[in-house]
Amino acid sequence: MTTRTPLLTESDHGNLDALLGHAFEDFKAGLITKDQAVGGLVQMIAALDQGNYGEAVNWLKQGRKFMHREHLK
User: Fold this and answer.
1) How far is Cα 64 from Cα 1, in angstroms, rounded to an integer?
2) Distant-in-sequence, close-in-space partners of 51: CB < 8 Å, separation ≥ 6
3) End-to-end CA distance of the chain
4) C-alpha distance from residue 43 to each of 1, 12, 48, 50, 69 (Å)
5) pTM listed for this prediction
6) pLDDT tens digits, residue range 2-41?
């Protein structure tokens, strides 16, 4: 097994916890659709996978707002 330097900071992990919680709660409350929740999480994961840390952190910080946007519906 290889080791690598983690991409996410402790703060990022806190924001990730919050983003996941908001996605589940907003879906449960009917504020966003399943597609919006999944689509937002996929965007954040894809940004990390592509090495786009800035976009990933932006999603971690503002993802709840982004998931509510019309283009993800």
Assistant:
1) 35
2) none
3) 40
4) 27, 16, 9, 11, 13
5) 0.83
6) 788 888 899 999 999 999 999 999 999 999 999 999 999 9
